[in-house]
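Final report, closing paragraph on structural work. Over the funding period we assembled a curated collection of sequence-structure pairs, and we close with a single example.
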Amino acid sequence: MSLLTQKIMYQLQWFILEPGTTVTQDLPGSYNGFLYIIEGEGTFGSGNTKGKKGQVLWLERGIGAEQSEVKILAKERLHVMLYAGQPVGEKVVARGPFVMNSEEEIVQAYKDYREGKFE
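Its predicted structure, as stored:
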């Protein structure tokens, strides 16, 4: 009998920057991710994409890169969350509060819920 385990790799960072401050975060080139702007306004990435409070900015994997980076420049006081990780590479199906890998699993989750199998 063999046991297969998958190491899940991710990175979660919080940044609170004063106006005019720049920070550069290194990431593995294979990571996808996003930035959520909690407060303030700034520019992000090599393209200096503008972002402000309440926005989500998506990060894509580097093309053929072992390492990549994201640059953040605060235009005003800026509070940002960065979440990035190795893509899982599996299908995702979501309905209501359930997120599974197939429509059949969603149907089963609702059935289990209705039958009181959730604790």
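The chain has one helix and ten strands. The longest strand covers residues 10-17. We thank the funder for supporting this effort.
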